[in-house]
Each structure stands twice: as structure tokens, then as C-alpha cells.
């Protein structure tokens, strides 16, 4: 690991992620959107869609991570790296392993959610207009939701850096999951700062746009620009993953943007 974690590192990561978006406002979001669209298209396949999307996830993470790397190093990110990622035999199977593990973990979570939330969901009322919102609010599957979130956090910690550790560091599947998990755990304070700042940017952007549209007489315009806003925020998040990975696992001294 690079250095003793400090809360200020989260702010540095956040600023550098914004810098990546500023340097490549078209090419970098384009690659991030491409990765997201591929995941969505694969998930639409009957029966095996969830597995296919999960298997794509590690490859997409490497693609967006390298795109952020190239951007911050002064190069224009391109899609030419994608075939190279798939042709890289030493990392191909560990990356698929990360995807399959994620898929299995999600399936187990869904079974647990269905089991814990069955009674609450059964109390939801369906009318001619659709699901009755009041019945949903009165019977929220809180226990099921909280349990699945708690179970999801370890998976996120294990897989957030694992694809890059496999492709960039040539780590084996188990080792990459281990180092990713404890890399997050050991640097939890700045990671939390980065996540909080990202959520703050998300909420703040939405509120500002909503107020702006209301002021100019377009109170219902936010849904039309929401995809663009999501693309921007997702790009910042993906760039942040690379910046954190670089600093935590490559012995790079952190600095300010």
C-alpha cells in the first residue's frame, strides 16, 4: 500500500477525477457509456443475461480504468485497448472468475431478499392503475433491503480493484480479491470521503438543475437531461476508481490537482 491513509486523500482523488472529466469531456464519458451500454445489452438476454453482464463487468472495469489512466497521463483514450484486454490470456480467466463470483453472489442475495421480503411484498396492492404506492410505503421490505446491502458491501470491496489488479498487476483471482478488500478496508477513511463527495455531487447537481429548470419555467425537464447527468457522474466515479487504485497499489505519491 502506498501511504498511511488520510481523510484529505479522498478530496485529492475527487478533484483528480473531476480533472479527468475536464481533460476529456467527450472521449472518456464515451468509453464509460459504452461499457454501461454493453452491460445493459447483455443483461437483456433471456436466462443468461445476468451472467453475461457480470462476466463483462471486470473487462469493462479494466477498459474504463485504462481510459482514465490514459486521460490523466495526457493521452486520448481509445477503444483499441479493448481487444488487447480480451487477448491477454493470463488475465482473461481471472477476470471471468471475478464476473462469475459476482453473478453467484448476486443470485444468493436475491434469494435472501425474496425470502426476507416475501411477506412485505405480498402485502402490496395492485390496482387498475398499477401498484398502489401507499401499500408499498406501508410494507417496505426494510429487513430484506438492509440485509442485502450489508451482504453487497463485501462484494463491492473485493471487486472494486480486483479487475485492475488482475490485468495490471498479474495477480491471481484469489489474491486480487484479497488485496482489493483489504486495500479498501485499510484506506477506509479517504474512500468514504470520496464516496460522500460523489454522492454530494450527485445530489447537488440534481437539486441545482431542478431549481434551474423551475426558474426558467421547465419544471419537468430534469428527466430529459438525467441520462447526460448520470453519464457525467458515472465517469467521475470510474475515474476515481483508477485514481484510488493507482495511489493505493502502485506506490505513487499523492499530490493535489
From TrEMBL:
Stretches assigned to coiled coil: none
Bilayer-crossing regions: 25-42, 142-167, 188-218, 224-245
Protein name: Transmembrane protein
Alphabetical keyword list: Membrane, Transmembrane, Transmembrane helix
Record carries keyword Transmembrane helix: yes
Annotated organism of origin: Sutterella megalosphaeroides
NCBIfam families listed in its UniProt record: BPSS1780_fam
